[in-house]
Amino acid sequence: MNLLFAVLLGLVQGISEWLPISSKTQVLYASYVLFGLPIAAGYAFGLFMEIGSLASATVYFRKDIISLFHDRRLFTYLLVVTLFTAIVGAPLYYITDKYLQGASPFIGIPMIILGLVLIGIGFYIRYSRSIPKIGGLNEMKLKNYIIVGIAQGIAALPGVSRSGMTVSTMLVMGVKPDQAFRLSYLAYIPASLGAFGVSLLFTPGEINAGIQAVQPLGIAVSIITAALIGIVTISYLLKFAKSSKIWKLDIVLGLIALSIGIVATVFFYLLPNSVSLS
Length: 278
Known about the structure:
Layout: H1 3-16, H2 23-35, H3 39-48, H4 50-60, H5 62-67, H6 72-100, H7 108-127, H8 142-154, H9 162-173, H10 177-202, H11 204-214, H12 216-241, H13 246-270
């Protein structure tokens, strides 16, 4: 077991979870390259690794979590979003796992689409003089919660970024950028718990393959690394989202998603024979 590889895996998870580049897909790449995991096992292992990012979000948003005992609106938001995430995401995860075991995945295409959407939103924010219709959670309605939950559930598909889907959905709604990032990251906490549970329930064999490849000590190192780097990443992105240059961040994130989507398409589509799916 190579501890350096474990640290690299943790870095991939800790950074990519909060960017619109699908952390589970990046962990899939990393676990395949570093540990030789098959694609289906790497996909399941990507959800398993979210426990590190869950620790990041729990520490960073600990005050918001405590406030759930008296903040009814935030509690309702998280409850509704999580419910619809589960309704959409659990079946998609099960179907995707079966698909990845017997077909070449087109996981780069969703990232390309999402990248273009984020670039478009960035230019819209830059040149639009309109005031956001929704300032934050206090102005959001039940239908907004449901839409965010559906968007987060769709992110169960490989190549679809959870943060990218939820943030871009809220920006399109007119939510202020800093609030969109904050609410997206808060919604991740219960969603990641669900994703972890679903991965253990539906794909225990793939998870076991990942544990055997990385080994318990390596997993511990990866999770701790992901947690620590995640806190730094969250802090930086939220601070940037409050600035007047948020449109630049959207365009940069969009370009990152677009670039990685193209690389993924080349890796999995043009070179299918080089990748073992089982």
